[in-house]
């Protein structure tokens, strides 16, 4: 089952359950069985599906369910069960510890491993290009002496990323040692090693990987997995983990016919987080992986978990474009009093502008993350300094974000507008509707 269909099947199961007159053990079991079938067809490993079922059954209290057998009660119970499924799937995708994060300006060696055809070479360039656009100084080293050499060289040349590889040398360890050495001397901060995926025998592949790892002492080993490989995902990921210290996963080919379940299996097998997904062959078809929005899509819950600072930024810009905030704010109960102090138009405008300036000093990762975990005290101070504002103002801005994100999280099914998709007035009236429901 492809990813796009999985959400539909799960929504269908939940819909069936909400049509029931009472939610008892049988209704819940039927629903969970349908969801389990959908997950299995999407290549989630059997044991994970089984564990999820047991965990959900354990937390659902049937006495409470029986008590809520009017329509509202049933809707609440369905919400509760949907939330429980959401939490279980998030848990599956969260290994509990973040992967090593390279630091700009400090040399890190990142080694990519994966089977031939998994999309490893494509991913190496995408990863390099992603960082290059953010001001890093990446470099690519190709261990493979055959086809990947040409492919990686071509990609690297196109993206103007330094490249090292040797056609004539057959010893991969020698090539990689030379390449890493050279780029360390050139002060590259991200040295990306593309290992070979082609070997007649698995044992030879893993032995070469171990030797390359030994020679380069990578800061992070990334396992690249084809998102459409099916139930083999778990075993494949585990085999790599047993040979080298895999610390992160990138799932490729998540466009088109990809099955989402493989990502869950790879996390379980490697106990490492998925950090990016590949959504096409082109350099920029590469996305940071964020667990909650991914699971939210998987469950057909739409974008309601995905309210990011960037959404707030874009909506503030829309509001400023509309001119008169006093007019807009009368329709914006979603906005806090802080944004409309004493009803003064100018002050409100100035405040929104200040928030926008502060957000201009945030990184893309911070703007696109639904979590403010990235923002610690030091970051708040940096943002304040970079935007010429007070620390207190930056904290105010994040409080405002948390408040709006909280409002949007309650608006299940409502799509968060993309840039330019929704006018501030539409957004304002959505907030207005919400204000009466909260
Ligand atoms: N649709 C799609 N195709 C992809 C994606 N990533 C890679 N590919 C294609 O998949 C094929 C294999 O990708 P490679 O990057 O060559 O894979 P590899 O693991 O390096 O394989 P070898 O070089 O043979 O070891 C190529 O045709 C890529 O263009 C993706 O995210 N989506």
UniProtKB/TrEMBL annotation:
It comes from the Eukaryota. Keywords: Cytoplasm, GTP-binding, Hydrolase, Nucleotide-binding, Ribonucleoprotein, RNA-binding, Signal recognition particle. It catalyses: GTP + H2O = GDP + phosphate + H(+). Transmembrane segments: none annotated. It is found in: Cytoplasm. One of its GO terms (cellular component) is cytosol. The keyword Iron-sulfur does not apply. Its EC number is 3.6.5.4. It is an enzyme of class 3 (hydrolase). SMART domains: AAA (SM00382), SRP54 (SM00962), SRP54_N (SM00963). The keyword Metal-binding does not apply. Its main location: cytoplasm. It holds the Pfam family SRP54_N. Residues 273-286 form the SRP54-type proteins GTP-binding domain. GO terms for biological process: SRP-dependent cotranslational protein targeting to membrane, translocation. GO terms for molecular function: 7S RNA binding; endoplasmic reticulum signal peptide binding; GTP binding; GTPase activity. Component of the signal recognition particle (SRP) complex, a ribonucleoprotein complex that mediates the cotranslational targeting of secretory and membrane proteins to the endoplasmic reticulum (ER). As part of the SRP complex, associates with the SRP receptor (SR) component SRPRA to target secretory proteins to the endoplasmic reticulum membrane. Binds to the signal sequence of presecretory proteins when they emerge from the ribosomes. Displays basal GTPase activity, and stimulates reciprocal GTPase activation of the SR subunit SRPRA. PANTHER family: SIGNAL RECOGNITION PARTICLE 54K PROTEIN SRP54 (PTHR11564), SIGNAL RECOGNITION PARTICLE SUBUNIT SRP54 (PTHR11564:SF5). Component of a signal recognition particle (SRP) complex that consists of a 7SL RNA molecule of 300 nucleotides and six protein subunits: SRP72, SRP68, SRP54, SRP19, SRP14 and SRP9. Belongs to the GTP-binding SRP family. SRP54 subfamily. This is signal-recognition-particle GTPase. It comes from Dioscorea zingiberensis.
């Amino acid at each position: 089952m492809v990813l796009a269909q999985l959400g539909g099947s799960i929504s269908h199961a939940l819909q069936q359950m909400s049509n029931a007159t009472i939610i008892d053990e049988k209704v819940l079991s039927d629903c969970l069985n349908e969801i389990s079938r959908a997950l299995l067809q999407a290549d989630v490993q059997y044991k994970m599906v089984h564990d999820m079922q047991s965990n959900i059954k354990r937390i659902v209290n049937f006495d409470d369910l029986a008590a809520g057998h009017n329509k509202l009660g049933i809707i609440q119970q369905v919400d509760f069960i949907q939330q429980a499924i959401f939490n279980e799937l998030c848990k599956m995708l969260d290994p509990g510890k973040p992967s090593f994060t390279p630091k700009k300006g400090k040399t890190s060696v990142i080694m990519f491993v994966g089977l031939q055809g998994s999309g490893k070479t494509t991913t190496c360039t995408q990863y390099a290009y992603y960082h290059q656009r953010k001001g890093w100084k990446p470099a690519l080293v190709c261990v493979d002496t055959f086809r990947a050499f040409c492919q990686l060289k071509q990609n690297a040349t196109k993206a103007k990323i330094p490249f090292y590889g040797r056609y004539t040398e057959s010893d991969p360890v020698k090539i990689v040692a030379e390449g890493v050495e050279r780029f360390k001397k050139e002060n590259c901060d991200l040295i990306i090693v593309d290992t070979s995926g082609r070997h007649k025998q698995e044992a030879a592949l893993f032995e070469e990987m171990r030797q390359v790892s030994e020679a380069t002492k990578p800061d992070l080993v990334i396992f690249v997995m084809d998102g459409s490989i099916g139930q083999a995902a778990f075993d494949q990921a585990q085999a790599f983990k047993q040979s080298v210290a895999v610390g992160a996963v990138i799932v490729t080919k998540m466009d088109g016919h990809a099955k989402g379940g493989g990502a869950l299996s790879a996390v379980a097998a490697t106990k490492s987080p998925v950090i990016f997904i590949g959504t096409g062959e082109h350099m920029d078809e590469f996305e940071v992986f964020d667990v909650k929005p991914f699971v939210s899509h998987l469950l057909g819950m739409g974008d309601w978990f995905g309210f990011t600072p960037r959404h707030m930024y874009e909506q503030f810009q829309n509001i400023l474009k509309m001119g008169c905030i006093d007019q807009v704010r009368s329709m914006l109960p979603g906005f806090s009093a802080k944004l409309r102090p004493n009803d003064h138009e100018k002050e409100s405008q100035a405040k929104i502008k200040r928030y926008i300036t502060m957000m201009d000093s945030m990184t893309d990762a911070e703007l696109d993350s639904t979590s403010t975990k990235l923002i610690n005290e030091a970051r708040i101070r940096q943002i304040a300094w970079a935007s010429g504002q007070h620390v207190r103002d930056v904290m105010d801005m994040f409080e405002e974000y948390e408040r709006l994100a909280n409002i949007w999280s309650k608006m299940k099914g409502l799509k968060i507008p993309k840039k330019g998709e929704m006018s501030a007035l539409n957004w304002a009236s959505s907030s207005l509707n919400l204000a009466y429901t909260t």
